[in-house]
Amino acid sequence: MGSSGHARPWLLALPMVLGVVAAPGNGLLASEALPRPAGLEPDIGFWRKIFGEVSTDEALVHDNRYLGIVYEKLDLSDLQSDGARQRAMDAAKARYSKILRQLAAGNRSNLGKEERRVLALWAGRPGNGTLRAAADRVRVQQGLSDRFLEGFVRSGRWEDHIRDSLREVGVPEMLAALPHVESSFNPEARSYVGAAGLWQFTAGTGRRFMRIDSAVDERRDPYRSSEAAARLLKANYGELDSWPLAVTAYNHGTGGMRRAIRATGTDNIETIVRNYDGPAFGFASRNFYVSFLAAEEVERNAEQYFGPIRRDPPEKLTTIQVPAYLSASTLEQTLGLPRETLQAYNPSLLPAIWLGKKYVPQGYTLRLPDSVSDAHERLAEIPGNERRTAQISDPKPRTHRVRSGET
Fold first, then answer.
1. What are phi and psi of 216, to 5 degrees?
2. d(CA 237, CA 169)
3. Predicted confidence (pLDDT) per residue in 118-152, tens digit
4. pTM for the structure as a whole
5. Distance (Å, rounded) from C-alpha 235 to C-alpha 255?
6. Helix 82-104 crosses helix 128-135 at what angle (to 10 degrees)?
7. Interior/surface letters 170-187, b for 16+ CB within 10 angstroms, e for the rest
8. Strand-pair partners of 59
9. DSSP states along 89-144
10. Is 166 helix (H, G, I), strand (E, B) or coil?
């Protein structure tokens, strides 16, 4: 998630490196290839299944460090509630942990069919210690193929702008697939740590690249947040000089990746993914780069996974700079557009504006349907008594000292 320090589900023969076409004037960044280490192919393959084959009605029971070890595919389609599905996944996790502990005890006589199958998955690796450790690493990942397809359809609205934004600052265009991992291209997505929008920026990181205040939150705008994500990715690369690390830093932060380099003595992404055990380098960070590579591959070959697809067309917009601080009601009346339309085209404007507690800021780039061809003329005609020179101030916080006996 574009946190840069914040706190998110088949094996084909593939080339080792994916090349990226150079952007004019930005040769170094745009032309660099994104490595695809052979040792990470099982992990990429796991996420390829999650994004392209396994739906949200299914889940894979797997080892959380070696994703090529998949114990079972669960069918959750008959379980309608989230609670029932979670209980089924927890039960499967406990079952395989128990099997692995029994195998780790060293008794290989009279093994049942399931025990023999699980043991075979670990063939060629060290013995009981490996199995004992694996018992604590059983994890269940719900599929995402249906959500991926929905996101791929939606992404048609913004793909051209995203690619243009990346190319403009010299970032490989294949990183346009990153929102599949972050939000499934849902601009309304929010995480439990407060990351928001298509690119899942936290507020702290977002303020480095966008406007975020009590009236505007540009994380919610697919266009502005895409421009910000391009600049963040470029900044990550500038600090780390490695695209695998720059991409991973999008989730784990550049400081976190520098700690990983110091701890492992290398900037090799495979070594870091396999061996680094930093306290904040959890499953999401460890899998960020491989899941991105898988998402990009599934996107690039979408019809092989999903059949014929009709994507949303690019949005047709017109933009205009707001000439003064204006109320939402003034814009509605002046432009002849319902409030719902203005809200839909300008998701970065926060509810305080629509409730009349804040003005649309002076200089804000207002997005409108391209059918509104005379917006400049209409805004120029707004009378002076409706133009404000300053924003409505935030109310001062009110405090009360709690006294004994109060509830």
1. -135, 135
2. 12
3. 999 999 887 899 999 999 999 999 999 999 999 99
4. 0.87
5. 12
6. 160
7. bbbbbbbbbbbbbbbbbb
8. 74, 142
9. HHHHHHHHHHHHHHHHTT--TT--HHHHHHHHHTTTS--HHHHHHHHT-EEEEE--
10. helix
